[in-house]
Amino acid sequence: MTKRIQYTVHGEVQGVNFRSFTQSKASSYGLSGFVRNNSSSQVEGEAQGDDESIEKLLKVLKSGPPAARVTKVDTSEIDAKEDESSFTVK
């Protein structure tokens, strides 16, 4: 079953290659969606795919790349999108 989540990653997550790390991991898990920085010094985005792949992504978001210091990851389930086929950095 396909599901879509919205996520926000808190901590020291900008300027540490978090977006490219997330794109690489999400793409390797077969997920679609996006990742971007927000104006509150957080990283946010959406990811869509099967439950197992979403859980894998959430696990790596909680640690991030080596230079990141993640303090919290907020998630919520949202409606799936039909017209998306890749995971992009915005």
How would you describe this protein?
By secondary structure, the protein is an alpha+beta fold. Helices cover 24% and strands 42% of the residues. It is built from two helices and five strands; from the N terminus they run E-H-E-E-H-E-E. It has helices at residues 18-28, 51-61; strands spanning 2-12, 32-37, 43-50, 69-78, 87-89. The protein has a five-stranded mixed β-sheet. A hairpin with a 5-residue loop joins strand 2 and strand 3 (43-50). The longest helix has 11 residues, at 18-28. The chain is globular and about 35 Å long. The N and C termini lie far apart (26 Å).
**Helical content class:** 10-25%
Instruction: Please write the string of helix (H) and strand (E) elements.
Output: EHEEHEE
Mean pLDDT figure: 97
Give the strand order of the largest sheet, numbering strands 1, 2, ... along the chain.
Answer: 4-1-3-2-5
Structure summary, number of beta strands: 5
Radius of gyration in whole Å, from Cα?
12 Å
Helix tally equals 2
Q: Label the structural class.
A: alpha+beta
The gross shape turns out to be globular
Largest sheet: 5 strands, mixed
Strand content: 35-45%
| Termini Cα gap | 26 Å
Q: In short, what is this structure?
A:
24% of the residues lie in helices and 42% in strands. With 90 residues, it is an alpha+beta fold.
